[in-house]
Amino acid sequence: MQNLSFDLNNDVIKEGIFSFSCEVFTFENLYTVARGSYVKHGNYYQSSNMLVHGGQTGSKGCVGLKIKPINDTSYHVSLKAKLLKTIRSVKLRVSFSANAKILSLINGEHHRIDHDGLLIRYPEGWRDVSTPLVILEADDGLFYYFRSLDNQVREKRFYIQKDQNSDQLVIELIHEELATVMAEDVVCPTWEVGVSEDLESIYQKHAEMIAEHYGLVPFQDRTDVPDWLKDISLVVTCHMQHWTGHIFNTYDDCLKAITKISEWIDPRHVLVYLPGWEGRYYYQYGDYRADERLGGAVRLKAMVDGLHALGAHVMPMYGINMVNQGLENFEQWGRPSEFTFPSGAKLHHGSVDWDGSRHYDHFTNANLNPASPKWQSRLVSQIRHLSDEFGFDGAFLDIAAVWVNDSNHDLLPGIIEMVRKIRADNPSFVVGGEGWYDGLTKAMPLFQCGHTEGKMHYHDMPYEGFFTPFAREFAHLSLGDVSRGSTGCHELGYNPETMTPSRKGIIPTLALVDQTIEKEEAKVKIIIDQALEYQKEVIDGDTD
């Protein structure tokens, strides 16, 4: 992690055990506050003595900080800044004396904070933090917490490091304004900085804020949760076609497998999730239709009808923000929809090793913003048409939790609008997505967990109250199948993790590749038994 090679010599405000300073960032440079220039008015501090060129040249502008005590050890800190150039982000630097480890990461890792530093991003639907809250546990048992009280999804970055000279801990709380509204002045959402002896109270307070800000209601009361979804106790990931064209299951194979599973569990409790159903996984993204090698339209319709006759429900997979840029007329509808960073750069995300060549240079796909009208219209039209034609019960939106501070379109409102259009006139239709961050709960009620190289990161971590009251999740499609650990069409290849933990917010998940049931029926039944227990304990016994 890069750091500046000189001391900024910023003006510092001391309140209780914390020291606060501020930095302002434009697209061209960094601005700081001259030493001794803050003027205090009660709990409000203001300076019109700004510096640029690493603190060596004066500049016009001003910064204001309001530091309001909550109690003896906790504060609300509000910032605003004004320059003669467009402001991209504002940093509140907080330093204090403690030795600590971080508790609040999605992946459950408890990193000890040292001189190397740790960068944490929000929103991040897989590994960092799914809500703008960082908690550190100090060696003396106290909990230091830092959270944004923002009522909308805007980028936050947390950088934590032990100071090279003083050995104090320093945490940088960075707010980046929406690129669609960046201007010469910015009012940052309030930061709460504090210390507590009670970890639960920190989490609970933040969970209540999430629910209030996004208007969340309990899962059972959501209008986008039909009765059939409330009764699902097993998600079956039926892998179909790999990027290379290797087929794990055809449409007929899928119906045969679920028919067999129906001998052990009532299919009314089963949601069949279909990755690679449209042909070559990821390669075909953006052009969804029945694949001839899998059986064509006739067999796909027969599969869905057969699953419905059993009582099961069907949810195919679509890429919400990824398409093959070789598709017809891509320049007209795709190129204008590409994610654009605040700097103007396009998002050209790296690839994975789809074919075992080890070069990671498969740039077949482009990254599109689902809030862009042209791409949104195209994808919504495809999903609605295919759902009407084949009778699908839902749509799974791959990579839904990717968040980019797009300079053309605010992402989350666009996703909410896209989901509204997909479900228009069909209240029993369910939209789910991969990954999760707090505001995304407003858009959809069902999520696939995140992962790192196949290690599942479930969204009820680190605190169940952020997620489980409002939504449900199932295992990522890179969950291994029980016969040999195959991840099917997913690029990981093999994964020894083949079963979900047993918790209220996590629907048991079974992965099927070629002949999984035939090869390991006994292991399949273990997951079926888990689903039956989930039905008994969570669904039948759920009065929340």
Radius of gyration: 25 Å
> How many E-type strands?
30
Tally of separate helices: 10
Round the mean pLDDT to the nearest integer and report it: 96
State the secondary-structure class.
alpha+beta
Q: What is the 3D form?
A: globular
Assembly state: single chain
Distance between the amino and carboxyl termini: 45 Å
Beta fraction of the residues? 25-35%
Structure, explained:
The protein is an alpha+beta fold and 544 residues long. It is 20% helix and 27% strand. It has ten helices and 30 strands. The strands form five sheets. Strands 1, 2, 3, 6, 7, 10, 12, 15 and 16 form a nine-stranded antiparallel sheet that branches. A hairpin with a 6-residue loop joins strand 15 and strand 16 (169-176). Helix 3 runs parallel beside helix 4 and helix 6 runs parallel beside helix 7. It is globular and about 75 Å long. It starts with 12 loop residues before the first strand and ends in a 5-residue tail after the last helix. The mean pLDDT is 96.
